[in-house]
């Protein structure tokens, strides 16, 4: 029962059970288990796009382009999963960011219908790639407390609002996309990570005089189109700026 499961110690459950609970929120789990109504799901090692190690522990899940529908109960993701990708699956509901596995390095939930806020302080400290673009997430963005190893962060095409601080990003961050949101206010681009290669803040309401004189040398693309930022950019390759 739901009450019983709420009291169960996750670590005491076999990974097979955890995975069955994980897909229990989907309307079309058969697209993964391939059981075709034959009863209990097959062993997880035979499930579609599920990688297990030599000990039978799940390490990677890639359920992309499957119209699974339903909700993602991340609390049932096995603690050994380092990478999870479920995009264009029509998932709804909220995500309990603090319940993600502590070893998770990559999470891709691109183009679903997920709602709620993003609580970056509860993300695993191991997180390197997070793509939740094209969803219905809202609230403000705390970019000052991202996981220290974050490399690629895509929050574009959501409903985030408020101001953003870009002066305390992780030095490991190379790609940041926060475009097509309701972000506003001024932005400080003088302390971006030196290894940053791409920054997209286009189609937002950020505004005002901006110092572009200290952009990272590594920067290959800066997109500021459909904003009201103003300032002078010198000695920059033409192809870098998308304005």
UniProtKB/TrEMBL annotation:
Protein name: Leucine-rich repeat protein
InterPro entries: LRR_dom_sf, PRK1-6/SRF4-like
């Amino acid at each position: 029962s739901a009450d019983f499961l709420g009291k169960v110690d996750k670590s005491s459950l076999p990974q097979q059970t955890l995975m069955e609970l994980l897909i229990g929120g989907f309307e079309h789990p058969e697209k993964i288990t391939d059981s075709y109504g034959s009863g209990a799901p097959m062993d997880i090692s035979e499930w579609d796009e599920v990688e297990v190690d030599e000990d039978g522990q799940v390490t990677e899940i890639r359920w992309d382009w499957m119209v699974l529908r339903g909700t993602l109960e991340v609390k049932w993701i096995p603690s050994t999963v380092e990478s999870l990708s479920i995009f264009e699956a029509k998932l709804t509901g909220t995500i309990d960011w603090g319940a993600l596995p502590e070893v998770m390095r990559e999470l891709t939930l691109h183009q679903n219908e997920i709602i709620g806020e993003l609580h970056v302080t509860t993300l695993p400290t191991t997180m390197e790639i997070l793509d939740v673009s094209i969803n219905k997430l809202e609230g403000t963005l705390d970019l000052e407390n991202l996981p220290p190893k974050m490399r690629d962060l895509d929050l574009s095409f959501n409903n985030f609002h408020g101001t953003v601080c870009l002066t305390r990003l992780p030095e490991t961050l190379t790609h940041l996309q926060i475009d097509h949101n309701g972000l506003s206010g001024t932005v400080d681009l003088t302390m971006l990570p030196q290894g940053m290669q791409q920054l997209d803040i286009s189609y937002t309401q950020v505004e005002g005089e901006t110092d572009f004189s200290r952009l990272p040398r590594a920067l290959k693309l800066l997109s500021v189109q459909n904003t009201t930022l103003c300032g002078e950019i010198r000695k920059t390759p033409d192809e870098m700026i998308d304005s």
